[in-house]
Amino acid sequence: MKVISTEKSQVLAARIAAALGVATADVKFARFPDGELYLAAGALDDETVIVGSVTDNDSLIQLLLLIDACEDSQNHLVIPYMAYARQDKKFKEGEPISARAVARLFGNGVKDCLTVNIHEPDVLKYFGVPTRNLSLANDVGAFIESLGLDNPLILAPDEGALTFAKGVAAAGGWDCDNLEKTRLSGSEVKIAPKNLSSKDRSVVIVDDIISTGGTIVTAAGMLYQQGATEVYAACVHGVLIGGAYVRLRASGVKEIFCSDTIERACSRFSAADCIASAIRK
Ligand code: R5P
């Protein structure tokens, strides 16, 4: 077995290979003058783990090319982060179900597929092969443990993220709640934990994705007003578009951390062990 990856997932791929005790395969990447992507895979084994987070359109094409280049091998596909997964239904007439459109691209050339905290696990049914979705809730919890916070309150930004937050909180036996938005007037909203108080407590807001950071910036400001001593932000996928990291820090968020499903300077824990043990099973 060898592990091969798209350009942007090479660090995580090397970690997965190390966790599996196998080698990585070389890939040469280039671009044609018209902008088309090119790649050439080096020597492969008869079994290949193909790792590629879909972070943008180029990485999607690169992943499809890589699968095709590995056609003579038995392939296990790993998509640690899949962009377009949040458009998982038609919110307005005429829209595509983008998550379905992307998932359907992966029915050929692979035996099975792993995703990690995909935004809506229901979209797994659109992959053309058996697909399992892994959760890093325990890994997020282990990282929070390493911060040595005194009895932190783990908060989901909304009810939809509560199951994930509960998984994180279970790692340390911490309190867990979700934030709730109450409209006070036409222009005023209050965001506060639904059942528990954040007063005089360290709070960690946990989510699957931090994208613009807007959700957490608003919540952090309100939590400080309500007496939280410090607010941290943790996620699996640090999309962090634009100036999200800076905006979060400026809002008083003490530390932002994410996994390496998308390689970021604030990737503080790895999805590699979780992925490697799922591949071994
Ligand atoms: C939403 O459905 C996701 O779970 C995240 O809550 C969302 O992507 C965060 O977005 P942002 O960082 O832009 O507020």
Radius of gyration: 20 Å
How many beta strands in the DSSP annotation? 15
In whole angstroms, how far apart are the ends? 14 Å
What do the pLDDT scores average to? 96
Class inferred from helices and paired strands: alpha/beta
Describe this structure in words.
The protein has 281 residues and is of the alpha/beta class. It folds into 2 domains: 2-135 and 270-280, Rossmann fold, CATH 3.40.50.2020; 137-257, 3-Layer(aba) Sandwich (Rossmann fold). 28% of the residues lie in helices and 29% in strands. The protein has 8 helices and 15 strands. The protein has helices at 10-20, 57-69, 98-103, 137-147, 162-172, 214-225, 244-250, 272-280; strands at 2-5, 23-24, 27-31, 37-41, 47-51, 74-79, 112-116, 131-134, 153-156, 175-183, 189-193, 202-210, 230-238, 253-259, 267-269. The strands form 3 sheets. A 7-stranded mixed sheet has the order 11-10-9-12-13-14-15. It has a 6-stranded parallel sheet with strand order 2-1-5-6-7-8, with helices on both faces. Helix 1 packs across helix 8 (272-280) and helix 4 packs across helix 5. The radius of gyration is 20 Å and the shape is globular. The protein binds ribose-5-phosphate (R5P). Ribose-5-phosphate binds at residues 86, 119, 157, 161, 207-215.
